[in-house]
Write a structure and sequence with these properties.
By secondary structure, the chain is mostly helical. It has three helices and no strands.
Length: about 80
Amino acid sequence: MGDYYGVDWIANGVTLVRLWMFSNGTPHSRFWGWILGFVGVFFWALMGVMMDSLPTMITNVIYFALTLRGFLKERRNHADDASTD
């Protein structure tokens, strides 16, 4: 215990706050949920490096790509909705 300098706690905390932001449902909180998703991926990938765990690192590269895809898709849909108003 304590080998990861609190990175594990930060990664878990950011992930939980991200989920709460998404469940809030407002566009502003969803935006910050996406941002926290990227921050969480960084800390989880850092955990993979610290643990020397290739599967954790690969999973977080995939998770980053999926988070980026979701963020861009939501931004595009939000822009389309705004242009039809």
